[in-house]
Design goal:
This protein is an alpha/beta fold and 404 residues long. It is built from 12 helices and 12 strands.
């Protein structure tokens, strides 16, 4: 396996994953040229079974047309009804990590109202106030504790905004990891997000805030992003933070840092971005080399129609980070970007990594040749264990620097 970090003075070797043979990695130069990897194809029907939504109101030309709030609500229900079955989560992962964390319900305040979340502490302990720097950060973001029977008591309505905090049983004073789920800005927190957050907490020893931001179309751009910006800003007032984002959440993670740099505020220690959508300005059908076996064009266009309004400038950098100039990216923290060969977002994610490197930042980028969109959090295919190992190795490296 070959792997390298991106620095402004060097290219990068794209690792082909643990099962790839010699020569499977491809070198990317600073001019953005790269060779093609071997294409991965899903098993017959897998893409449709896992990610395809129902018919999405095409016109006579086949274009997506969503013009009324009622149509948007119907389309959102279709998309939210296509969750991947939780049986993809390995039982040993679920049991091992969830058994080491406990939960209590809290809330924080953002410019878009209250954001409830679960505060997850060391198993067998209670916490009435901050016990260390990381807990203080969670407390500062939390606001008043919710009483029993309050609105954040129930986890049934997870499509309402909220955040969970996961802390391992042996968590010292460490940075707070902020985890942001995917779902095309439309689908809410799911069971695998709970498992991922517990895994991050246990493997790093850090507390984890698992954000359950407001969703489109009820809350279109930039509501969810600004909720995350507000909560991360509150965490950074009293502690260091690391951002981990998956798909839509990866878009948020990048946008949070760009916003902080523009305002001259504190920035996180590091960013992990899995298959980030960074070009929301270009129609999916016009993106070169895009693959649609797993996420069809109608699905991608549906996400855009629901997340944005007619007045949205989809080209602004908080919406499409790929449009950021070098000066807007200068000072970015160390960043890990993960892409998948069978993913329509692969090329833009890798171009984002290149732009960050050209702006003088430290970037590690890894493409998994036999993986599809969502494989890191949905535990799909054979390469998610290698991706998990890479993420933890990256985070532990960041934590080692922070402790020096």
């Amino acid at each position: 396996m070959r792997e390298a970090s991106w620095w402004p003075h060097a290219g990068v070797v794209l690792s082909a994953g643990p099962e790839a043979g010699p020569g499977a990695g491809r070198h990317m130069r600073r001019d953005g040229h790269m060779g093609r990897g071997r294409a991965w194809r899903p098993r017959q029907g897998e893409g449709a079974r896992l990610l395809r939504c129902a018919a999405v109101l095409p016109n006579e030309k086949g274009d997506l047309v969503v013009t009324t709030d009622e149509e948007k609500a119907r389309l959102a229900r279709q998309i939210r009804g296509t969750n991947i079955n939780s049986t993809h989560i390995p039982a040993h992962y679920r049991e091992h990590y969830l058994n080491q964390v406990t939960v209590e319900h809290r809330a924080c305040t953002t410019r878009h109202g209250e954001l409830p979340y679960d505060l997850i502490n060391a198993a067998g302990t209670t916490r009435d106030g901050p016990a260390d720097g990381a807990a203080a950060a969670a407390e500062s973001a939390a606001g008043p504790r919710k009483s029993a029977g309050g609105p954040s008591e129930s986890t049934a309505g997870r499509h309402e905004s909220g955040a969970d905090r996961y802390e391992s049983t042996a968590s010292p004073c460490k940075p707070v990891i902020v985890n942001m789920h995917g779902g095309g800005f439309v689908k809410g927190h799911q069971e695998q997000d709970t498992v991922i957050s517990a895994w991050l907490a246990v493997e790093t020893g850090c507390p984890v805030l698992d954000l359950d931001y407001a969703l489109a179309p009820e809350h279109p751009y930039p509501v969810g992003l600004e909720q995350c910006i507000d909560l991360v800003g509150q965490v950074l007032e009293t502690s260091e933070a690391i951002l981990v984002g998956h798909s839509a959440g990866a878009n948020f993670a990048l946008g949070i840092v760009i916003d902080a740099l523009a305002k001259g505020g504190a920035v996180p220690l590091a960013v992990v971005a899995d298959y980030p959508p960074v070009d929301n300005e270009t129609d999916p059908g016009e993106k070169p080399g895009i693959v649609t076996d797993v996420i069809p064009l109608d699905r991608m266009r549906a996400f855009n129609e629901l997340y944005f309004t007619e007045s949205t400038n989809r080209g602004e950098v908080l919406c499409s980070p790929i449009n950021a100039e070098n000066e807007q990216l200068s000072g970015f923290p160390p960043t890990l970007i993960i892409t998948a060969q069978q993913d329509p977002l692969m090329q833009e994610g890798e171009q984002m990594a290149l732009k960050l490197a050209q702006a003088g930042n430290e970037v590690t980028m890894r493409r998994f040749l036999h993986a599809r969109h969502g494989f890191v959090t949905y535990f799909v295919g054979d390469e998610w264990p290698a991706a998990h190992e890479l993420i933890i190795r990256f985070l532990r490296g960041i934590l080692g620097r922070s402790a020096e």
